[in-house]
Design a protein that fits this description.
Layout lengths: L12 E4 L4 E3 L7 E6 L6 H12 L1 H6 L2 E7 L3 H11 L5 E3 L4 H5 L3 E6 L2 E6 L2 E5 L5 E5 L7 H10 L1
Parallel strand pairs: 3-4, 4-5
Antiparallel strand pairs: 1-2, 1-5, 3-8, 6-7, 8-9
Length: 153
């Protein structure tokens, strides 16, 4: 079942790049931009993460916390964070339970090979923990503009 605007955002706890647990419901009272990306330190994911980093002030002005989620191990997202000085939470969804709860764990295809992975999708969650906007299959270059517009609505 796909999440739609108005649905409660499924709560979860995952380890971040520092090995600390992060729980979505701890962010109640603020906007959350929960974005799922396929794999740390790949070209599209790096462009998206660095753009989020570079728009930090605009997210702060929108009273939003940005959280990235991938199926990578903690050590891999820690290296990704260090390499690009991202300074926002990246979460390790190794068992892809959160991706499944949000309906973004999907069959993908590259060079004729089929595999399962995160669909690049973003959920804007309001201060009450409800889904405000769903942005599916977002292009990294368009991500921040689309998300910031959704936050402004």
């Amino acid at each position: 079942m796909a999440l739609e605007p108005g649905d409660p955002a499924p709560d979860f706890t995952l380890a971040d790049q520092h090995g600390d647990n992060v729980t979505l419901s701890d962010f109640r009272g603020t906007n959350v931009v929960l974005y799922f990306y396929p794999k740390a330190d790949t070209p599209g994911c790096t462009a998206q993460a660095c753009s989020v980093r570079d728009h930090r002030d605009e997210y702060a002005d929108a009273h939003a916390t940005v959280i990235g989620v991938s199926p990578d191990q903690v050590n891999k997202i820690a290296k990704f964070d260090d390499k690009y000085d991202l300074r926002f939470p990246l979460l390790a969804d190794v068992e892809h339970k959160v991706a499944e709860a949000y309906g973004v764990w999907a069959e993908k295809s590259m060079y004729g090979r089929k595999y399962m992975g995160n669909e690049r999708s973003t959920f804007v969650i309001d201060p009450d923990g409800k889904v405000k906007a769903v942005l599916r299959k977002v292009k990294p270059a368009e991500h921040d503009e689309l998300v910031l517009n959704a936050l402004a609505e």
